[in-house]
UniProtKB/TrEMBL annotation, chains A, B, C, D:
It comes from Cecembia rubra. Residues 7-197 form the Class II aldolase/adducin N-terminal domain. It catalyses: L-ribulose 5-phosphate = D-xylulose 5-phosphate. NCBIfam families: PRK08193.1. This is L-ribulose-5-phosphate 4-epimerase. Belongs to the aldolase class II family. AraD/FucA subfamily. InterPro entries: Aldolase_class_II_sugar_metab, Aldolase_II/adducin_N, Aldolase_II/adducin_N_sf. Its cofactor is Zn(2+).
Length: 232, 232, 232, 232
């Protein structure tokens, strides 16, 4: 019943070590099936080299395990919360990739400096402020979902267009139409994070990318008249 | 008819991931056939691991597709413009390699600090200023070609000797006698960009390479009495 | 008699080059058998690609070779001292990994900046001050063990909870319930060291991780009610 | 007649790409046979993946080709000069490795910050000042040998103990009892150069390694009573 979903989730998870985005078990990817009202997610603490399709856990939006013998990722409630509130996303990826985490630890948005960034989103990459203590001590992973959504509301940005966030002092979450796109966004974020770090080292006064270039690069890939790719 | 050209273009493109110069589809290489008045270029948005020789697109200097079922790279007009105006170049490579992009985002020329640089060119690596808005909103990729050529005219430098440029806020373009040499120059540029970054971190007052060393190293490889290599 | 211990020690040592933690012979791992009162350790100066299980040396806590034809690691006395005084540790790993060594050479504790750090320990990673000259000129490797233990006493921290240290001007030592866990801690330390370096480059005023997040992340993995992993 | 020497030189050269010390053809290794009064060296401009044992060139100390169909490395005269004047060295390696070149371009000695450095040498790694113009325009590669020897005379250091140098604005040369040891020293130098760079980024006031630790670490590996390694 959930075979295809688990297989898709499994394959996306296995991309993480190949892309250099995780050491050991520091990451997890999920994929949702909106019709069935469930998502598939990596089990907690299992090394990637031991992970098998049948280990993937099926969970509903209220965090109940629907299928699977293992405990799901400790971040499951964050995934559930985001799926519940953002109806357009199909996959979520969380890693502790080096450069993205470093910006998150610095508690800084990643400024938009170049077209590599604008090829994927039109704003700085937002960094959500660390939670207040009462929320940390409460239902922490659920509240992390809330923290991300609040950040997007405050900044008035759209998760369908900005598919990534840094959780301050913690690290990146990314999403997309499916698990594979969420992983793609994690890899892109890591590259943008590294380039932005280097850019500021070379020129602390490096200018923000000009609006016309942001518009041009984003639209040629994602606009109504996009002409990047094979149009399918 | 175009088999050899497509094969050569294909092989040069496939070098990019092996050399660590691209993630996903962030790059494209072309090679020209001056007699036939066409060039071969990567199709747009196709991952390198799926790319096949038969996917390579043949385009003329007015951006007409001469052969191929796929849409050519979104940067095709930049390639066409450069081939049209610079009669001596045979291949062009565009990447978003990490260190070269970071200098482009910093909008800084890469200073000539050492003999690794002088083994390949005698000037700083030029960074072209970002375009004015009207040109961005116009025929952007065509104008990117213009932007590069204008940069060389302004600085009075010769594209036969300086086979690389940074497009400000965007990234590097390199060229050479064929596609393979263009890719070689992209790899060399990335290394020079990393070394120059580190040099300034270690010593913000690092001196420009002295003129006699620039001359010596460039000439022993490229001068009339060059003695580097096997002379063939 | 010591086969299992040697095999386990061998496998942990062979992880080091795969994890990118050593060049040449710059590292050593040991594992203890408390009942037999001995530990297994890498022989001195043997390249990893030549190392065989039978080369592993068995040593007691007074540095006597119990079994083995080779000379044990030159750091053997440090291992022996730590095993003798810290009854709860089962394996020790010493490397010269790049970022951890750089913090050790900077003679700085690694500040706790994020949850990657707090997933593993609740304090800054301590850097022990370089030894006084008389101790260096005395029984140096034995005194290095003393130096590490003194550092933990001074800072009033518990080696069962803080499984890593930087020896100032030298490099990292890590430990754990067995050799494999000690190696795991070395890899984690290297990653934390790199992230902390980058964090301070991006934001020299980056704040220490707040106490509530330290507690939360450490406890969800290691506390009485830990819910990370499969609970086995 | 020269088979063994060529084979040994070939194998040392082939280490360079595996150790990440070269891109393309940016390096060369030689090995001397003192009895025969010749050395074996890489041919100029040949990519490592095409290099064969029979391509290695045999040259005498006056730069005459004794055997080989190819042109020897463009740096051959530097090797010859060093072999002629330093009777104790058996192999030489020259690369453009990233971090060592960056220190050379910064025209800075690499300070001795830690025991990784002291395990190999007891002084800062010297950076030779760039040559005066008349010498650059003269017999440049011969004069580079002179420049290195002058640097050691000025600083009153011994090439048998300090087996590496940075040629200012250019890059590293290393040597040792044979070609393989020279390559080993190039890899060690690159690591020390990276660590020293990072150390100063973390702590611009990082202290020089104390004299007692320099002595201890150097002597336990190289002193009369060395106890590192298997003593053979």
């Amino acid at each position: 019943m959930y075979e295809k979903l688990k297989e898709s989730c499994y394959r996306a998870n296995m991309q993480l070590p190949r892309l250099g985005l995780v050491v050991y078990t520091f990451g997890n990817v999920s994929e949702v099936d909106r019709e069935m009202g469930v998502f598939a997610i990596k089990p907690s603490g299992i090394p990637y080299e031991e992970l098998r399709v049948e280990d993937i856990v099926i969970v509903d939006f209220n965090n109940n395990i629907v299928e699977g013998k293992m405990r799901p990722s400790s971040d499951t409630k964050t995934h559930a919360f985001l799926y519940k509130h953002w109806k357009n996303i199909g996959g979520i990826c969380h890693t502790h990739s080096t450069y993205a985490v470093s910006w998150a630890q610095a508690i800084k948005d990643i400024p938009i400096f170049g077209t590599t960034h604008a090829d994927h989103l039109t704003t700085d990459i937002p960094c959500a402020s660390p939670m207040v203590d009462s929320l940390i001590e409460g239902d922490y992973e659920h509240n992390t979902g809330q923290q991300i959504i609040d950040c997007f509301l405050e900044k008035n940005i759209d998760p369908s267009a900005i598919e990534m966030v840094l959780v301050g002092s913690h690290g990146p979450f990314t999403w997309g139409k499916d698990a594979s796109k969420a992983v793609y966004n994690s890899r892109v974020l890591e590259e943008i994070a590294k380039m932005a770090f280097l850019t500021l080292q070379i020129n602390p006064q490096a200018p923000r990318l000009k609006e016309a270039l942001i518009r041009k690069h984003y639209d040629r890939k994602h606009g109504a008249n996009a002409y990047y790719g094979q149009g399918c």
